[in-house]
Amino acid sequence: MPAVEIVVVQTIVRLSAQNGSFPWKLVDEPPFDALLVDGTLIEDHLAEVEQMAPAVLTVTRLHSEGMANTLERPIRAEKLQQWLLDTGQELLEARRWTSPAALVSAMSQELLDSARFSLCRWPPAALMGRSEYSDRMANLLWRRQLSASELADRCGQSVSRCVRFLQALRNAGVLEVHASLSAGNSQHQPF
């Protein structure tokens, strides 16, 4: 991008970042959550650039407004801010259902320490899907605290499948982890 446009983008992001609800900051090296690129300079390399970040905003010439992930010149602060806010929300939502390595190792450590799990609220429908096993596991966790192996025994599922389900519940923020070995059966009534 031309130096003038780079300064405009930097200024917009820095001024926007002073608002506590604006989650973006500028970085010079990977990993990138989003990239802003000049569409006239990368037309032949767009596929390569799209692999560098989960979100790519292409700055284009006039009359390209309305195309997804494009920003028409001249760069306008409100349009850039809106794209960043919308993209940030989409990225957070996507990460909510993804299990990062740190979470997997934390979950594995908890399982090794014989942790017990229960639901603090019913999981979102998008997480449950139409699987009778997911429904059964969620119902069991709603009624009492169970370890991963107890959950597997009661559902007739493998421990690894139960652990994946527990990780998804934890990512969704509906799983309570109890470190003690006591059963402490808490009685929940669904809905």
TrEMBL record:
It comes from the Bacteria. InterPro entries: WH_DNA-bd_sf. This is DNA-binding protein. It comes from Variovorax boronicumulans.
